[in-house]
User: Fold this.
Amino acid sequence: MGNISIVVSLKAPDPAAMTAMSTFRRIYPETCPDSLERYDYWCFLNPCLGRETVSGIVSRYHDIVNPNKQIWSFIDEFSKLVDRSDDRMVWIDVLVTDRIDSVSENWTAILRRNNCEVEGVLCSVLWRFGFTSGISFDNARNRVLDLTVSTYRDHGLLANPISQKIDLPAPLRI
Amino acid sequence: MKSAPLVVVIQFPGSNCEYETSRAVQNSGMDSCIYRWNQWQELKDSLPDAYVLPGGFSFQDRVRAGAVAAKEKIMDLVFSEAAGGKPVLGICNGAQILVESGMVPGWERGRIESALAANHISGRSGYLSRWIFLHVAAKARKICPWLGRTGTGILPLPIAHAEGRFVFSEENRYRASNSAALKYCDEKGTETSDYPANPNGSFLNLAGIMNDRGNVLAMMPHPERAYWLWQLPPYLPGEWGDRRDQSLHSGSYASTKGPGSLFFTSLADYFRGER
Assistant:
């Protein structure tokens, strides 16, 4: 029991991840990752929340997961979304969250109004950087921060720290 | 030899306002040409006098609105031209590109010092399309080539965006007021942070900001969509609504310029040295 997070992925290749990757290749040819993935990340806040409640919310509200084009899993069952049976890459995860977020606020209001046992919802974007082996975890982590945090016109891409928070959570177990 | 100042409009993949923006420039007595984002050499060779980044959804707003376009090579050129003093205007998505390029507010060269974050309105999220009112900051009227003719009145313009809320870091909040160019207000000119006068929760009711020199202006409303009076909706209160009604009755409805034209004729005045 506790906060429960899910990740949502497109069934098709994610166009935002492809665009970000091609931009990285162009502006950071030396340090760009070997792979980049993007997921919607939803965290449902309630210390008493059960998985059945979250599954019910996801199946009821197709604005969270549209089953026609998206798939989802609980965060600790992430391997259901990806096949990495022979994966020797170093993966670094980055969560990008708007500091003020109408989407999270409105979903919190909607779910509370409908008695969904949820105290709050946090919506983020989860980016997963993959580097081929040969790079240390710490080096990969530093490189990811450089690539992510946009501080100058020629520095960083995925998050504007003026309006967004950047977190590097513990890597997901796959 | 150029017969009139050349204002280039840069089209990124996903831009969708380049033609009406170009026509607005031409109708204001200047030449205009549309260049695609990958025609940077041709653009450079055309020796532009000013640049406009039009509205739309560059790169489908992937990653973050304006973020990918800001990293394009053509922006190196716009950046250096702006540093040399040439006028640059970003409208809506163009404003997002300027912010993500660090060209506005531009306190430190190339540093990203603000953001155009997602609209923050109680009870709704996402895209918002409506008419708003704004007034022009006195300092901006003096130093910004796009604003010389806008006067002290209240201007109605349309907005259409999901990410239009100007945000600054805590330490730069005081400084931000010096960069104010356009501010949302109600139809009587009163500033309030409440919706709908401030339609997106923008800090200091900012609808547009400029750099210290005033030659780079990033604005979320669309002046090219209010170039003619006939583009104004019939329910619009205030001076411009009255003008619209009068022109309708006098038969000049189709040929009378609207509030959006002031931004482009200001630039024409600037090039004629009339300010």
